Automatic annotation (TrEMBL):
<dbReference type="InterPro" id="IPR037063">
    <property type="entry name" value="PHb_sf"/>
</dbReference>
<protein>
    <submittedName>
        <fullName>Cytoplasmic protein</fullName>
    </submittedName>
</protein>
<dbReference type="Pfam" id="PF08000">
    <property type="entry name" value="bPH_1"/>
</dbReference>
<dbReference type="InterPro" id="IPR012544">
    <property type="entry name" value="PHb"/>
</dbReference>
<feature type="domain" description="Bacterial Pleckstrin homology">
    <location>
        <begin position="2"/>
        <end position="90"/>
    </location>
</feature>
Amino acid sequence: MVSCFKAVRDFVVFTDKRLIAVNVQGITGKKRDFTSLPYSKIQAFSIETAGTFDIDAELDLWFSGLGKVRLEFKGGSDIRQLGHMVASYVL
């Protein structure tokens, strides 16, 4: 595991080979959807930093055969560092 970011219920884990998005579902949170997305399938990506009034940062990833995946992070997250990390695995 290289890095992990948590939202209210969901979270995403970045490893050296893939990112794993975990979607917690249901009232009790016992049902979880694990989606493994390998860096080798990323065709393009972009980052959007948090602004003054927009407190969320975003990472958009385009995967071959899947399309666009958007990950939203709290404003305190270092989205630039995350972009550098993704670039080092993709390029």
